[in-house]
Amino acid sequence: MIALLLILIPLLSGILTFFIKKESSARTWSLLSAIATFIVAILGFTMFNSIANLSFKASWMGVLNSSFSIGADGMGAMLCMLTALSYPLIFLSTWTTQYNNAKNFLGLMLLSQAGLMGVFLAKDALLFYFFWELALIPVYFICSQWGGERRIKIIFKFFVYTFIGSLLMLVGILYVYSKSNSFDIEAFYKAGSALSVKEQMWAFWLFFLAFAVKMPIFPFHSWQPDTYQQSPTAGTMVLSGIMVKMGVMGLLRWLLPLFPIGSYIWGDTVSTLAVIGIIYASLIAFQQDDMKRLVAYSSIAHVGLMCVAVFAETKTAFDGLLFQMFAHGINILGMWIVVEIIERKFGTSKMSQLGGIAKKAPILTILFYIIALANIALPLTNAFVGEFLMFSGIVSSKITQYGLAFMVAAGSGVILGAAYTLRMAGKVFLGETNALTEKGTDIALHEIVILGIIAVTIIVSGIYPQHLLESFNDITQSILKNSDVLPLLKKH
Amino acid sequence: MNALVLSAIFGVVMMFSGAFLKRIASVKIIGIVCMALLLISNCMEMRGIKLFHFDVSAFMVFDSYALFFNTVAIFATLIFLLLGNTEISKVGNYSAEYYALIFFITAGIILTTSFTSLLTLFLGIEIISIPLYILTGADKKNLKSNEAALKYFLLGSFSTGIMLLGIALIYGSQGTFSIEKMNFTTHLKSNFQIAGMMFLLLSMAFKASVAPMHFWTPDIYDGAPTVFTSFMATIVKVAVFVGFVRLFQGAFGTLDKTWTLWISILIVVTLFIGNITAVFQQSVKRMLAYSSISQAGFMLFAVLINSDAAREGLLIYSIAYSLATIGAFAVLAKMTDYSFEGFNGLAKHQPVLAFTATICLLSLAGIPLTAGFLAKFYMLKAAIATGQYLWLVIFAVIMAAVSAYYYFRVIQAMYFKDGPTNSVQATGLEKLMLIVICILIVIIGMFPNEFLSKLYF
What we know:
Radius of gyration of chain B: 21 Å
Number of strands of chain A: 2
Shape of chain A: globular
Order of helices and strands of chain A: HHHEEHHHHHHHHHHHHHHHHHHH
Helix content of chain A: over 70%
Shape of chain B: globular
Helix content of chain B: over 70%
Number of helices of chain A: 22
Order of helices and strands of chain B: HHHHHHHHHHHHHHHHHH
Structural class of chain A: mainly alpha
Strand content of chain B: under 5%
Largest sheet of chain A: 2 strands, antiparallel
Oligomer: heterodimer
Structural class of chain B: mainly alpha
Number of domains of chain B: 1
Distance between the termini of chain A: 42 Å
Distance between the termini of chain B: 19 Å
């Protein structure tokens, strides 16, 4: 029931939002709805976390053997929690941003939340595909309508990329379905892993392309920096904070257990692409003058590391990966909020035109530094836990022979990451004030609260990650068990 | 049978109503009521209540598949009349005749979908075509409309001639017109059979506007009055497809080794030409004409694949495609400027029209939660289940992604671009019908169970 509520609350309140005439009441309504979802998520994942509460099954397309089957395992719960936490923060942080027709904007945002929740909870392949697209369409409209100058073409490029990816995934789903005759996830795992080596090898790409575009993995990333730059900040937050995790979750839930042999065979290829992406994106991030583009490229680098960890297939790597999915969502949300505040205050996000903000806005600076340090995975922050576990998992991987090489290459990406993040922090916040930043003021109370929540989350989960890590135990075990390639290889 | 006899009678009634009734409004109402009666009579036959008892078993069979499709076609026509009646009366002074012709076309559709004799198929196709030539030229003062009618007539009669030739050759080799009595296995592939089959393939491909026999489509769809374009691009077209499927899987089913390759080539060519050409169109009307060609490529899957899933897929495709295209054309008919720029900023001053057009276009593009997705899904599922057309399926989905480009161009124009607030007017009934179409599209897309279970009679 809790799982169903997590989808229904944003869905219904989102539809209602379109009919609220007054802008301020639409804003309040959508914020209340997001908070309600958050409370339901908190209660659901702490006090009432019985299996009956967290899963729901109803008949839907009986003739196709597809059912409306949702359920929250450790990964789904964590991602729903991330979504539920992000939306109130997004609404609050863009509270004073002006939108034409704000009610449509907020309604679409809530619809995208419903879609995302559905993606994370779906336990039925067809349902998963439905939500996968449902999450995309509202975001497409949000970004195309309220984005920057060149938005229409750029967002459409993003749309076409993901649409081709998801259509190919649909072919893959249908192919597995032709063997399993049911869309249920367990039947899918069974039918998928029973495919011959050759079939798994190309079916892997049908699925992988959809996820690779969403994450994005080099060389399917070219939509991403432009899209992040041209989207309205709220849209970018959803895209980078949460939608990226759709891809990672897709790999873990709908690829590894489905095609264990295919993943084993292509794992090194994909990891190599991801590592190239890490270094490539980090080098480009160095050259950026626009804060938005810098954050966008740094996101490619972070996601690349997650992808390597997926194909390492060890428990440590998975633990770290899941933790990092949460951490990255929080951190990049914080980064975008700061960028949004700076852009709103000074009218630009170009580093060369900014400087010396620390003198005018000390609280913003302190909070930003906490987020930036988390972004470069300093100890005591959440990202450190995730990245450390991922690295040790990658090195100890028995699946790949090149674990050490991947770790060294990805590690150099982390070092580069530290360099460009600190360079940005220095250029924007330190130094002398100029004509533009002279009149700067510190942030308002609600902004302190939002960034404060993020900073506290960063530090608390960095110091005490144990609780969250334990909740991943079951899911990582089951992914490992389902995607265990050794007995299958013997069989074929 | 009910609907066939009644549609012919209603056609005559409509012709006379034009002579006796002075007010167009009463003609309209009679037409819509007659169409509703037709729908009811057809539903009665589905329930086993037969109003007429003639023995026509040598010529046609009213099996559940044909009856279900006829219900879909008549229902779509009813929606079309409710939505387009003001536009129909704007075309010219002969409203009653237009309605009469539409009823005759409906009779032709019923013949085409339920034939068992090649002669019935020929009759059905002709009864569909001849009123369509007239409707195409209905806008008598418009040069383009006249040109289109003449072109359609010449090319159409040519293809009918080819069809007759094909039927004659088949008759020569088999000695029968009945598709049930044909037996191709005893005569090993004689040249007569193969030639006759290829001629029939060509002419059916022409009628269904399958590339490379599609060249008439854009000109004629463009030239015909928009409201009639929407009729011929949807209901008529899917009816021809049902006949196509019946012909090739019923009569030529045993010869499938000879024609499946040709059909799969036709699918590739149709999808490619339809989609790629649609991308470069400047006029939305021509874009929709090419989009109808590309959708025909998807419908061809039902001809290619001999399975229940594919035949069901064609039914779902017919309803999904008809509803969405009728909706899109209805909005288009309201526009003064048919180019993409003409749609700029429509969402600002006509939010209902823009929203409903968006749902229709999303459905045509095959976005989940719309009927269009389910239709494509069914076709692809049937193709994958055979296990040998995977390359075709991958090609088809890439082409479906291309199609998103031109459908979204209209959505982008309506929502994200600013335009003049020109006077696009729509009556309350039209808006209501558009909303009904959208609700139907979404309901079929979301809860197909109710709809699909009807297929398992």
